[in-house]
Amino acid sequence: MLRLNDREEEIMNIIWRLKKAFPKEILEEIEPPVPPYNTVLSVVRKLEKNGYLSFDKIGKSHRYFAKISKRAYQKSIFGHLLQDYFGGSPEKLLSFFIKEEKISDEELQEIIAKHKKHKK
User: Is 119's pLDDT higher than 90?
Assistant: First the structure.
């Protein structure tokens, strides 16, 4: 699965949130500056062509919906991030995250405790 650009991700997030949407509804949800309708339609059609979206034909309109879940997309992108930038090492990723986000030992222990609780 390819990494989407910012506009594509914005549109996918809108569709994941709304479940199904016409291009006009997508346009209404985009944060300013809002692109022209034809730009949104072009991005939606590209996403459909690349297998991220499908549509129901309703009269002359298309109502789009996601063919992949947000979770599947996140998992794919995270897998690429882990492999490409951290050599597939979760330890290197976690170490980077701890240093960059300045996570304290207490916060880390809290995260671990929540993870253990959630895992059960």
Answer: no
| CATH code 1.10.10.10 region(s) in the chain | 6-66
φ, ψ for residue 66 (rounded to 5)?
A: -75, 135
* pLDDT at 97 exceeding the cut of 90: no
Q: Using the structure block, give the residue that is written with the tokens 């006009």.
A: 24
pTM (predicted TM-score)? 0.82
Tokens 């690349």 belong to residue: 50
Per DSSP, helices labelled H in the chain are: 6-18, 23-29, 37-49, 70-86, 90-100, 105-119
For domain 6-66, the CATH architecture is: Orthogonal Bundle (1.10)
C-beta of residue 44 within 8 angstroms of C-beta of residue 79: no
Q: What are residue 104's phi and psi, to 5 degrees?
A: -75, 165
